[in-house]
Amino acid sequence: MKFGKRIIDLVYPPACAVCQQVLAPGETGCCTSCRKEIDHVKAPVCKKCGKEVPDRSVELCRNCSEHERSFVRGYPAMNYVSPVKEGVYAFKYQSRKDAAGFFAAEIIRVHGRELLSLQADALIPVPVHKRKLKRRGYNQAELLARELSNYLRVPVDTGLLERSVNTPPQKTLDPALREKNMKSAFQMTKKSVNYRSVMLVDDIYTTGSTIEACTRLLRAHGIEDIYYTSICIGKGY
Ligand SMILES: [Zn+2]
Ligand SMILES: [Zn+2]
Predict the structure, then answer these.
(1) What's residue 173's pLDDT?
(2) What CATH topology corresponds to 39-233?
C-alpha cells in the first residue's frame, strides 16, 4: 500500500490545491506561499450567511437583510478571492478532485468546533444536474461533504435532493432572474425524511439563492434546522 502510494506520488506528484504547483517536501495540501495568501473569513460576520461585515454593530450583511433567509446559519471558510478562487475553479472544473481533502480541512480549521456542536443528522451536498454530473464525472460538493463527514462523523445523504432543471451558469443571469430560476431548480427525491437538522454543503456561496432554494424545499418536508457550509463566500458587504 505504502509502496503503491509512492509510485503514484512519482507519477503524479502532489500539487498545491490552490495554485497547482508541485508541493515541496514537507508541504501538504497547499504550498507555503498560498498558505500565506489564504484569506479566511474573520469576525465580525453576518449572523445569517457568515460573510464578513464591516463592524460588530452590523447584524446582517446587505444581501441577507434584503432577502428572506430560511436557513439558521452559514459557515463559509474563506473569502472568494485569489488565489483560492482559482483553486476552487480547478477543483470544480479541472478534475482536481483530490483538493477536496484540503478544502474540507480548511472548513474544519475555521469552523470545526462549531460544526461539531451542531450535531446535524446529515450532510447534504448541493446536487448538480445529472447531465452535468455525467460530463464532469463528479460533484465537487459531494466530494467535499464526504471529506467533511470523516471529520464530523455525520453521514452524507445524496439521495434527498435532485437538480430538476439544467440551469444555465448563474453568473450569466441578473440577480432577480437568478432567484426566480433557482426556485424550481431542485426537487425532493423522497417523500418523507426523518431528519431534524441537516447541513448543506457547497463550494461557493454567492447570492445565496441556491442555498435558500434547497433550504425552503427541505423545510417544506419537515426538516426544522438547516445550516450550510462552503469553501468560499463572495467578499464585499
Ligand atoms: Zn500554491
Ligand atoms: Zn449575510
Answers:
(1) 65
(2) Rossmann fold (3.40.50)
